[in-house]
Amino acid sequence: MGAIFVGARNQFNTSFSDTLIELSAYSVQMDSVITSRLTAMAIGSINDPLLGISKASLITQYALPGNEFSWGGVTKLDSVVLQLRFRNSLATNGTALEDYYGNKDLVHILKVYLLKEDIKIDSLYYSTRQYKTDGIEMGSFTGKYNFKDSLTLNLGSEKVILPPHLRITMNSTFKELLYNGEKNGSFTSNATFKDNYKGLVIVDETPVNAGEGAIVYVKLTSDVTALTAYYSDSLAADFPILGGLRGSEAAYNYYEHKDVPSSILQKSFKGNHRDTGFVQPLTGSKLRIEFPNLFNVLNNPKLAINGAEIVFTPLAGSFSNPYTLPASLSLVGSDSLGKNIFLKDQFTESSSYYGGVLLNNAYSFNIVRHLQFLLDEQKKGFNYNYGMNLIVRADDPVTAQRVILDTRNNKGTFKLKLTYTVIK
Q: What is the DSSP letter of 341?
């Protein structure tokens, strides 16, 4: 019979140790994630001097303004602009924040291409799913991101004020293509329209040296986000883009990582402990945590575990601007292949008990129930001690913020703190 886990109150004297259980940590490739149900979408590229280049591209459908939409007899379109609303983000005092990661003041280059395949709103799309285009540019943006200033548009005698957003001008080839939709019968229904206008691919093509680049977040479920056609001097038609969570148009993010140092990522269950851990979102990397001597310690029948807290601390000097820290991390379980699964403590206690929020320059998690589960199953003859994975969540919120951790084993701040009682 192994150790038992008891509540904080008991008639025995309790002890504390942060060295009983041996820890091993190393970084591995993050699992692919579903990106067609996100609350916001990422766009951009950033060249982290320690982790290489990360890139996020947006693939999205757009819809008709209405069935049997008509240009009303005009002979050409004045202009077409792809409008992407920046994600709303507020500080604790309610003021608007500049919601990005990296260097927003760099001159950014975005390009738009036609999607050359069907995507569907009822399908799930993963971050590793490559898109198909013909490589012909249909629109572009070159400039700095403006998160503060609203934009006033004059439509005839009417003034329209729009909140800060990204505006990508579509070229004459695309204007003609969109204008011809009425002539070729594509405007009769939304289904017919999407058969002929499958969608757009927005790619960041900014040359980024080490330490440069930025990733921004856009909200597709916004009345500002649309492909807007201006015509007849005073008219505008919004071809809506309502992708992502609770949207009506299919959309997803495609993530890429290049030039990642070979020394950073190892194979699950085959890695050697490293004193520095790397956790990067957008399917970059996760930190594996393993307990080599777990059952040797917990198999003591006279040892009662009252509490178990594991602490992760960012490495000093690794998070100066622009590499700000994520507000929270998630500690999840691992299956026999190293893939992410839910941890018992994520659901059996309140989120404040489970932990993960950056507080006093550390991320802490309570994992008593996870250890109890491992012990209970081991008593039945099953070994589920597959370790755990520390990740930046894929959503809620979407972020590109990474964290580099001090994972010196039982020498620095990386520890599993046990409160326990030895029963005599």
A: E
Q: Which two tokens stand for residue 240?
A: 């809506």
Say which residues have a Cβ less than 8 Å from residue 193's Cβ, sequence separation at least 6.
63, 64, 181, 186, 187
Residues with Cβ within 8 Å of residue 194, at least 6 apart in sequence: 61, 63, 118
Q: The whole model's pTM is what?
A: 0.92
Question: Phi, psi at residue 180, to the nearest 5°?
Answer: -70, -5
pLDDT tens-digit series, residues 73-83: 999 999 999 99
Virtual CA dihedral for 18, 352, 35, 169, nearest 10 degrees?
Answer: -110
b (16+ CB within 10 A) / e for 54-78 = bbbbbbbbbbbbeeebebeeeeebe
The tens digit of pLDDT for each residue in 152-178 reads 888 777 888 999 999 999 999 999 999
Structure tokens at 408: 């010196």
Helices (H), 188-258: 190-196
Domain spans of the chain, in order of start: 4-23+273-422, 41-258
Beta strand 355-359 with 362-366: parallel, antiparallel or unpaired? Answer: antiparallel
DSSP 226-244: EEEEEETTTEEEEEE---S
Report the candidate in 199, 207, 245, 259 with the shortest Cα–Cα distance to residue 61.
199
Question: Which sign, positive or negative, has the C-alpha torsion 126, 398, 206, 110?
Answer: positive
